[in-house]
Design brief:
The chain is an all-alpha fold and 235 residues long. The chain has one domain (2-233). It is built from twelve helices and no strands. The protein is globular. The protein starts with a helix and ends with a helix.
Length: 235
Amino acid sequence: MFALYKKEMRSYFTGTIGYVFLVLYLALGGAVFCYTTLYSMSSDVTPFYTYMLIASGVILPLLTMKSFSEERKIKTEQLLMTAPISIKGMVFGKFLAAYTMFAGAMIFNSLYFIVLNYYAVVKFWILFGNLISILLVGMAFISIGLFVSSLTENQLAAAVGTIAIIFFFLMIGLLSSLLPSNYFLRYILNFISIFTRFQGFVNGSFDIASIVYYLSVSGVFLYLTIRVYDRRRYE
């Protein structure tokens, strides 16, 4: 698994995807920080992470769209499945490489608030809560992206499909807000909404149920990806 992880990390920087992702994500992070913090003259970190959560739904598929789609397109998928590595190792190796890229970029973006603390008071427990939350959300987004990438050899289709699923999970929270508070359906929609779960961290509190939810979403989509390749190996 570690060998595949190194191969995937190297591929991000021998091609253009890694650079495009980092430039877009870091530039967007800087722009969002200027708008939500410097322009607004506010040390509240929550708007920054809320905007970055939505942006991640669009940008993260850049990291995952080629993970398995490219292997199928250039006919190296069979080599992976016959290599001395388990299907789980193959999936987790690709997952960890994409997650390393995302987590590194997100942590770098968070350094703005370390600098800001010299000029204004930043509530670090709220900063930490928001950062942990978006790192968990990123884990779920990447798992979704890997699953969609395993279903097609078209990278554009993988990216669009991933964005569609991610925004379905995000928009569920908006849909629930349109329903009366006493509707049981509203409770169900809030339960599965990624965005609603994110709100539990904005005050620096750690919602164990939300942590379990994000880990569960990640686990389900990684499991589905493994099942796709388990079935494909024996076809």
